[in-house]
Amino acid sequence: MNSTDTAKPPKGLFIKTYGCQMNVYDSERMRDVLRPLGYAPVDGPEQADLVVLNTCHIREKATEKVYSELGQLKRMKEASGGRMTIAVAGCVAQAEGEELIRRQPAVDLVLGPQAYHKLPEMIARASRAVGDRLETEFDTLEKFDALPKARAADGPTAFLSVQEGCDKFCTFCVVPYTRGAELSRSVEDIVVEARSLASQGVREISLLGQNVNAFHGAAPAIEGGPDWDLGQLCRHIAKIGGIDRIRYTTSHPRDMDDDLIAAHGDTPEMMPFLHLPVQSGSDRILKAMNRGHTAAEFHDIIAKVRTARPGIALASDFIVGFPGETDADFEATMDLVRQTGFATAYSFKYSRRPGTPAAEMFGQVPEDVKNARLQALQALLRDQQTAFNASQVGQTLDVLVTGKGRQPGQVHGRSPYQQAVHFNGPTELIGQIASVHVVDSSLNSLTGEFISAREAAA
Ligand code: SAH
Ligand code: SF4
Ligand code: F3S
Q: Are 166 and 113 in contact (CB under 8 A)?
């Protein structure tokens, strides 16, 4: 790798990230790629030589935000005398390509999620104003191979991408088009990255993938090969010294296999929290969405998971107002929520995405109906979340302390169930797991009292 030329002042880099955790991870990797070129993060776009918008295309609003942000950046670029380079990365870049440059000529570079390792080359081309400003080829393996192996950790928690892309083609979703076909990284690569993170004090790793439990990574040099599933990978990462907590996101009900469920029971490092998007409780709608399972099958999976890991907290995603959704279909979703009980959940109004099959379906649901359904669903989910948080009061939880709290003398962190926890304690606790007695709860967090700190695992 090139060494940084210390004689030159660093160039300012500002990356703004939208969308899912995969984008958060990708933004970190872009920082890793740009560091040897002398790019150092700055606090705002005004001070930046390079601004990267890492974009999300999942709903219409997410895409619109990018264009309004670009309008503001254009003015800043003009004020900078043209010094600023503007790059658009992520899923909007992949989906819109050339159209982005046409709609906003101030954009210098457009690169899709599989092209981040080509950023240095593209910046060089842009500065000489030669060649293509667009890089949206799909070559996931090349990307993973070309990205620097070393990772700069930032605090005690980290994301680690293990799988990318999706072959499920849910009829509402753009991801199979923006991220391409499903592909897993090799176990060896993942383990190298996990070890590097652990050696920098990371204690919790969240394994990421658009369909993370479809993971089937090659493991030639390791016993149990040739291909490992996610359960095997989690058990292996759990053995890395210093790694106390493992999470994974986002999973699909169809890939919730018995071995992964068993791993929740036999691997204490796997946190008792499962984010399993279901989208709807109506079999008719699940079928139209091409989800490949029924509501009853979802309930069966949840029952198995709860047997393997009693007390596990559940999270999910929901869409209301999918084309053709009737009041009865929506009621089936409400029933599924009541029967399951979620610790937390994300819910969205269906957004029509160009190029997806559902966009062309009959029976598009009027906006006011979508609004009313979303409100009803969110009220129910809020009640469940409030009740789940309240059920922790009086208990003692392990909290991974991640930073200073808002009040002086306060720190905050995450419970095993992914809840935010605040308590009074010294800043030396940051990066450690503390035993905390929960005394109060609200919709979004817990308040506790510090009991003791646990030493890092060997
Ligand atoms: N891979 C994950 C989710 C990816 S997108 C999965 O399979 O579940 C994150 C969430 O956005 C989805 O779970 C879904 O609830 C929501 N979503 C995706 N497309 C959408 C659309 N067109 N309109 C509204 N919500 C959408
Ligand atoms: Fe989208 Fe469905 Fe793939 Fe999830 S499984 S990313 S919702 S197509
Ligand atoms: Fe958005 Fe792309 Fe993630 S569309 S949700 S950033 S995979």
A: no
